[in-house]
């Protein structure tokens, strides 16, 4: 079953009333509502027009309207609202059947607003618009932009040993990037997004890179730091200080109002802050004292080079 949610720009909201002063219940026999004396809103098409007696035919409606048909697809609307049992037969022999909808409204001036039931329409009504604007299509058209603006955490780049490593020895790199989920509101709809690491590109700072590779790397025991050459290890050929980073490529999926997950046609690349790797060389010498016994002994941190 296809889930359809339609958006229309409609009238400025005002409480409509019938002759008895109560809320209007709109069905197949009622085709228009006067809103605020300026517009006539037609729930069968989702469109509004200025009334004949309006003094300002150029006034723009500050509200927008949404035809919600969740109840036809097992959504949050309950059967007692009438959506599940209401029928909307075609008006003409060659016409198409209508769709039971619940009308909702929200201000145009608010980005990603909270939608509320349109109080002038109590319960469901039949929508007979042949080409309603489908908000799902609108979300699909912008979902990559929204996905690329998510606060996705790139994780961190880890190195073993760190911060000092040895020239010519393997330095094990790995990243902590992981799958992340977000719940956002897009065009009034609840959208669940998932960002999943797909590949990694390691930049070691000495002009060499690794990737894109599906290997995120992993931590190894300290006893293996100078001997275990992993899939994401790198050996520096010269001493110096190098700025290393990893760029993670995230793929994504999204679902609208608990619907099925759909792939996002595009990816997101995020690079970690640079981590400084100090590459040293090794030299051997005979010494009389340990660094604990004599901090100025040859080879101790901070000691003068002899």
Describe the structure.
With 306 residues, this protein is mainly β. It has 2 domains: 5-133, no CATH class; 143-280, Sandwich (Immunoglobulin-like), CATH 2.60.40. The chain is 5% helix and 35% strand. It has 1 helix and 19 strands. It has one helix at residues 135-148, and strands at residues 5-9, 33-35, 39-42, 47-50, 63-68, 99-107, 116-117, 125-127, 157-160, 164-166, 170-175, 180-186, 189-203, 209-213, 233-235, 240-256, 262-263, 268-271, 275-280. The strands form 4 sheets. Strands 10, 12, 13, 14, 16, 17, 18 and 19 form an 8-stranded mixed β-sheet that branches. Strand 2 (33-35) and strand 3 (39-42) form a beta hairpin. The longest helix is centred in the middle third of the chain and has 14 residues, at 135-148. The protein is rod-shaped and about 105 Å long. Mean pLDDT is 76; it is low at 1-37 and 72-80.
Low-confidence stretches: 1-37, 72-80
- The class by helix and strand makeup works out as mainly beta
- Helix-residue proportion: under 10%
Q: How many DSSP helices?
A: 1
Q: Please give the alpha-carbon distance between the first and last residues.
A: 81 Å
Q: What is the radius of gyration?
A: 32 Å
Principal-axis shape equals: rod-shaped
What's the β-strand tally? 19
Under the CATH scheme, the architecture of the largest domain is Sandwich
- Kindly state the mean pLDDT as a whole number? 76
Question: What is the name of the CATH superfamily of the largest domain?
Answer: Immunoglobulins
Helix/strand order: EEEEEEEEHEEEEEEEEEEE
The figure for the number of domains is 2
**β-strand amount:** 35-45%
Q: What is the fold named in CATH at topology level of the largest domain?
A: Immunoglobulin-like
